[in-house]
Amino acid sequence: MTDYQIFEAGDVVLQSGLTYRGARLAYKTYGELAADKSNVIVYPTSYGAQHYDTEWLIGPDKILDPRKYFIIIPNKFGNGLSSSPSNTPAPFDRGRYPHFTVTDNVRIQQRLLREVFGITKVALVYGFSMGAQQAFHWGALFPEMVERIAPVCGSAKTSPHNFVFLEGVKAALTADPAWQDGWFATKPVRGLRAMGRVYAGWGLSQDFYREELWRKIGYSSLEDFLIANWEGSFGRRDANDLLAMLWTWQHADISANELYRGDLKKALGAIRARALVMPSETDLYFRVEDNRREVALMPNAELRPIPSIWGHRAGNPAQNPEDFAFLKAAVAELLAG
Amino acid sequence: MTDYQIFEAGDVVLQSGLTYRGARLAYKTYGELAADKSNVIVYPTSYGAQHYDTEWLIGPDKILDPRKYFIIIPNKFGNGLSSSPSNTPAPFDRGRYPHFTVTDNVRIQQRLLREVFGITKVALVYGFSMGAQQAFHWGALFPEMVERIAPVCGSAKTSPHNFVFLEGVKAALTADPAWQDGWFATKPVRGLRAMGRVYAGWGLSQDFYREELWRKIGYSSLEDFLIANWEGSFGRRDANDLLAMLWTWQHADISANELYRGDLKKALGAIRARALVMPSETDLYFRVEDNRREVALMPNAELRPIPSIWGHRAGNPAQNPEDFAFLKAAVAELLAG
């Protein structure tokens, strides 16, 4: 028994030129689709996350209200529910998994909306981190279909420093003895722990650590936070899946397709959706400055940084009432406009 | 043949309670000691560095002028020239190496000055990064001896976030298969490469990478920079030595001794030296804000951030004329005052 549905996307030719045969997109819906299909919100997943991890944000008193909206969470390819290294048969299993770009992801998501639900308008694409990257892609790939986007702590194109940060994460994971011949044959316990510790420095701000805000969310010491939160969150994932999603993140770029041919300015300029772009003031890898440059090239966008010392996690405020309130108010305003 | 000297410090009881038997401090001097011994500059080493790596800063047209000053570089314990895991005999070899705190380092450096040269006054302690931490320690441990300190991109106490960043570096290195039973028996090639890649994201700013400043210093692509510069710089070190120095860094604290008993405010207040504290505006782990809080508690200190997008490397500007000029002028001013 699962709580989600599968969209059988068939044989999909990916941007790489490889064909993924029998691609499966796992998704879950919340609320009811209006008769005129005008109340659709797409809420894509962030790095490492499945809908189980992100659906806390949906609820009557939450940021996305299922009483008013029909909300769809499409699980990212590579996340273990949609087609992923961990569930792909040979010869495309594990290290031979054909990489999905963010563009590949969003195009299949759009097919899901069209083919299964007959949806032609999306009221909002809301996303955090890699979910924000998918929101930008929705805006650029389907400008006539998307009315609003709210990218939170994410960029239209992965910045060079963000790429380097991910190189470090990847190198830590693949330093593990289980990394052999381009994939993991067994679970890399050391590598997953190392990945968590490397990530810990990036995922929250320097000020978060100085102020010891981990005390507020149930951790008894810094080491307790590093083990329970960071080692724990990566340790329960499949390592080959984590690498596949990391590749997707590193190569995110709304202009890397035949529509825009690498012209980022053109791709940003093509986004018609009303956009409320919300980086965290203290995010160390998806930075305000990168969004500022992107927003300047978008015709209908506002930059609204989240005033927070929670770093990247300001955009995923499950345990953080101030940032939650900020995002809730901003999304309500965007949807009303 | 070596170009440096050894101070035989004898059997040293360390802060940990362990005795390091036959401790050896490697040092090199530049210039001539004045008859009144009033022209002494101490220039301690940074993480991973030996005097070979740092002496570029000494010269007639450089930041420290050996025509006027008698400059001493004491090599940090753990750096492979002074007593280190790589040169310590059993039973204190490798994983059993007795850790030296920064306080242990500076106390032995002070003995070198007193016992070998009869020096009782130091005109300046200048240091970058862990060298800056040693400068702060000199000021707090020997307030009557030290006239000036110039800590560049370093703090009096390692901040919690800085500690976490180093946890990530350490975890990446020790994810290597060669990490067994608390030390490396063979060279951890994967781990050293991972360490370099993790460090790359931290060592320079996000803006450095966006502006591709690596082009200015002889690298042909981002990947070329990551391999040649970052994997290269750690790959030539001894991994057990790198871990020992990392431990020293993580535990740096001018108040962690019997003089101040953890009272950082008291320790900072005890520094009589005129201090010119120079963080980089874009340093990601030794941050301006941490120095700002420290300077506020020091009686005779000025905070002067380096306006640079070179991140931490603004403080080690071998390839960076603007930041070099900034530091040169600041040190000249400090020494004139």
Summarize the structure.
The structure is a homodimer. Chain A is of the alpha/beta class and about 325 residues long.
- For this structure, the quaternary state is homodimer
Residue share in β-strands of chain A = 5-15%
What is the end-to-end distance of chain A? 40 Å
User: Largest contact between protein chains?
Assistant: A-B, 45 and 45 residues
Mean pLDDT of chain A: 97
Secondary structure tally: strands of chain A = 10
Number of alpha- plus pi-helical segments of chain A: 11
Portion of residues within helices of chain A = 25-40%
Approximate shape of chain A: globular
Instruction: Briefly note the structural class of the backbone of chain A.
Output: alpha/beta
Cα Rg of chain A: 19 Å
Strand order of the largest sheet of chain A: 1-2-4-3-5-6-9-10
Write down the secondary-structure element order of chain A.
EEEHEHEHEHEEHHHHHEHEH
Largest β sheet strand count, sense and barrel closure of chain A: 8 strands, mixed
Uncertain segments of chain A are none
